[in-house]
Amino acid sequence: MVHALPAPVELDDVAETSGRIRAAMETVISGRPDLVRLTVAVMLAEGHLLLEDVPGVGKTTLAKALGRSVDCTVGRIQFTPDLLPSDLTGVTIYRQQQHEFEFRPGPVFANIVIGDEINRASPKTQSALLECMQEAQATIDGTTYQLPRPFLVLATQNPIEMEGTYALPEAQRDRFMARLSVGYPSRNAEVEMLDRQETSDPLAHLTPVTGVEHVTRMITVTRRLYAAPGIKQYVVDLAEATRNDPGLRLGASPRASIQLLRAAKALAAMAGRDHVLPDDVQELAVPVLTHRLLPSTDARLSGHSVEDTLTAIISRTRLPITDRAAAPDRRAIG
User: Fold this and answer.
1) What is the pLDDT of residues 194-246, one digit of tens each?
2) Is 225-317 the same fold as 15-79+113-119+148-223?
3) Per-residue b/e over 103-141, b at no fewer than 16 CB within 10 Å?
4) Are 137 and 144 a contacting pair, CB within 8 Å?
5) Fold type of domain 15-79+113-119+148-223
6) Is residue 29 a contact partner of residue 61, using CB atoms and an 8 Å limit?
């Protein structure tokens, strides 16, 4: 029996399919196209996304909308103070009748893992995700299990000032490619939301527009997009500036540079471009870098936020001059 090879994915198809995913999500998420766009970009960049805001603004709804727009497996974790690491990764049990051990996978063994209110769990439980997020694998009782691809953790958290929350460890924040704030909808968008949900839940009518295998090939195309040497140098210049700025006591890690470039490639692919522009990097610098940085004591006492410091760094960092003619043609990748 001969099995047909999957059709190659072209760059135009990445732009068209990502547009359909966004359109499907926007039937549920009213008035926030930029938020939806960046969420899809993180998925194509094979990163993880942290959604932060007060309860009730649609963080979990956004995560569910992405999960239902793609025909894939979805795991859901409700983080609570008494949650254990084994509740995330799974457990090995002994089956007495068969006289053998059996591994029962936890909710992290899914393509999209929705972590609701991640900062309500203890740091020990939060840290159970570190290996999963960085290496797409989980080690339980000495045995390593590979997680499915693509693998996306889409976590929500409440502001740390709210009751019953823990601050995420720096190592875990660094695993998230981007942090986005949902924010309150505009008046018109909130009225539209009331109309949509007056008689039924829009999520119940949301159907997948593509499959997990197609998304995997889209990720491959996105990863291979061309980034000029000047673009890469610009990414490094931004990261290095955060490490030397007196307003910050913790700058961006090399992992942050890698993820910023990958996310910029995703924006370019969604726009149907086969190369990265400085605008792509600038648009993503704040959501990709801010949550990794810590302000200095002087900056905190003077009332300067990390975002203010990063915005100033972006404005004074010299833009690269890219040579578009040097970009190879990568419009069709198998």
Assistant:
1) 887 777 787 888 899 999 999 999 999 999 999 999 999 999 999 999 999 99
2) no
3) eeebbbbbbbbbbbbbbbbeeebbebbebbbeeeebebe
4) yes
5) Rossmann fold (3.40.50)
6) yes
- φ, ψ of residue 208 in degrees (nearest 5): -65, 145
For residue 50, the one-letter residue type is: L
C-alpha distances out from residue 153 to 25, 77, 130, 247, 305, Å? 17, 10, 11, 31, 27
The token duo for 256 is 């942050």
pLDDT surpassing 70 at residue 2: no
Please give the Cα distance from 331 to 168 (Å, whole number): 40
Q: Which of 15, 25, 17 is nearest to 69 (CA)?
A: 25
Contacts of 179 (CB under 8 A, 6+ apart): 49, 50, 51, 52, 173, 287, 290, 291
**Block residue for tokens 């990414």:** 235
Give the range with max mean pLDDT: 149-158, 236-245, 299-308: 236-245
Taking the C-alpha atoms of residue 38 and residue 234, their distance in angstroms, rounded to an integer, is 21
CATH for the 225-317 domain, from 3.40.50.2000, 3.30.980.10, 3.40.630.90, 1.10.8.80: 1.10.8.80
Cα R_g (the chain), whole angstroms: 21
Name the nearest CA neighbour of 68 among 203, 219, 182.
203
